[in-house]
Write a structure and sequence with these properties.
single chain; 224 residues; mainly alpha; 2 domains; globular
């Protein structure tokens, strides 16, 4: 099961884009909702890290999408019976899309992304963007959870409260999260400068890259 984590990053990314296209080309909710549920079951079977937090966010996303779309469609003159399937289909598409890319982010380390991008001889700036985009988002999610734990430690009840209050508390975490993201970006840029990052210099990889990305090269020689 865990071997799927070592799949080539581009294979996983292609799979995620394919699932996304299938979800958005689905005719209606009768196909989209089962696909969304199947995506969530897949995440559970694969034991993807942080699944509990993702499910909470997915539930909140469904509520917001359903409420906003139903309200908008009712204002346009549709009946509740017609608005509900459309809103359910939209929510299902978003859940399937986020689930697919959540799997890619949580099972692809920055090192594996750098290895496969270097093996493909991608331009350095593309390699940097890919590794930062898919590597930093999980780190920011962990910071978001730590901020929530700090709020709980200070006596702020953020679990057993109404949805509007929970949304307000979630927005309150945005400012410290933004500060942390800026600090992280500064630390990364400083590290790149220290290690002599040069956009005009091609780099090699220390991993075997194929359908799977091996953790390290096998030792070929023997110590004499």
């Amino acid at each position: 099961m865990k071997r799927i984590y070592e799949l080539n990053f581009f294979v996983k990314l292609t799979g995620a884009f394919t699932i996304m296209l299938v979800a958005w080309l689905a005719p209606d909710w009768r196909f989209g909702v089962p696909l969304a549920l199947l995506s969530l079951v897949f995440l559970s079977v694969m034991q993807v890290p942080g699944l509990r937090g993702y499910l909470k966010g997915a539930a909140l996303l469904v509520l917001l999408v359903m409420a906003s779309w139903i309200g908008n469609l009712l204002l346009q003159g549709l009946s509740p019976a017609d608005a509900l399937p459309i809103a359910a289909g939209m929510a299902a598409r978003l859940i399937t899309t986020t689930a697919a890319f959540y799997f890619v982010m949580e099972t692809s380390t920055p090192g594996s992304i750098l290895a496969v991008a270097s093996a493909a001889r991608l331009p350095p700036i593309v390699t940097l963007i890919l590794s930062l985009t898919f590597g930093i988002i999980p780190m920011l999610r962990e910071d978001f959870e730590r901020i929530a734990d700090a709020q709980r430690a200070r006596g702020m009840e953020i679990d057993n409260v109404s949805l509007p209050t929970r949304l307000r508390f979630a927005l309150a975490r945005g400012v410290p999260l933004l500060v942390q993201a800026i600090r992280l970006a500064h630390a990364i840029s400083l590290s790149l400068s220290i290690y002599g990052f040069d956009m005009n210099r091609k780099r090699t990889t220390w991993r075997n890259v194929g359908l799977l990305i091996e953790p390290r090269l096998a030792h070929q020689g023997q110590t004499k």
